[in-house]
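[recover] target loaded
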């Protein structure tokens, strides 16, 4: 009898965890607003110049989609951005990002900046060390509350500093994605 009770208790706990995990990710929409600057390049952002997602955003989007989130693409927001020129600034403010999130019916916004830099040459090699750092905020769109302040980093060694910077930014994006997902799971508790 005790075994049956414990089996049923374990099954109930397992189902509760499964439903709680599904509740946070099922159909939650996320906007990624992470401006990016690769080694000696200009600071870029898809919402300011109609380019695709940055290297960091691509990695974050990939992992969020794998977890069941809906990541709003630049094409989903083009009309909204064109209506208000304040949405077209590379350094978009927190208030404007929240407004954009609400207008696009997003649940969460990841607002941040990513910068890649080069370091010293790898000893006895023609490769260069590259580093990337990202700082971001996870914001709930409905009330503008900052749920988490996040940072992430990545590195790479490459013969070409621009390619190495992009690779380091992608590695930082993977690190950031894990932190965003953990913060969203905490939010669901």
């Amino acid at each position: 009898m005790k075994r049956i009770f414990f089996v049923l208790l374990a099954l109930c706990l397992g189902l509760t965890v499964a439903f709680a995990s599904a509740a946070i990710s099922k159909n939650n929409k996320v906007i990624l607003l992470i401006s990016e600057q690769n080694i000696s390049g200009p600071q870029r952002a898809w919402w300011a110049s109609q380019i695709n997602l940055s290297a960091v955003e691509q990695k974050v989007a990939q992992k969020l989609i794998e977890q069941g989130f809906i990541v709003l693409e630049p094409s989903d927001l083009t009309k909204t951005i064109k209506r208000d020129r304040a949405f077209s600034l590379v350094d978009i403010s927190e208030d404007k990002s929240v407004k954009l999130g609400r207008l696009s019916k997003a649940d969460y916004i990841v607002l941040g900046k990513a910068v890649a830099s080069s370091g010293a040459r790898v000893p006895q090699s023609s490769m260069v060390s590259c580093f990337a750092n990202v700082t971001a905020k996870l914001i709930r769109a409905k009330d503008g509350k900052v749920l988490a302040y996040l940072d992430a980093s990545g590195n790479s060694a490459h013969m070409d500093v621009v390619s190495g910077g992009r690779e380091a930014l992608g590695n930082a994006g993977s690190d950031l994605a894990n932190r965003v997902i953990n913060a969203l799971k905490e939010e669901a508790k």
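[recover] notes: Confidence is low (pLDDT under 50) at residues 5-13, 15-23.
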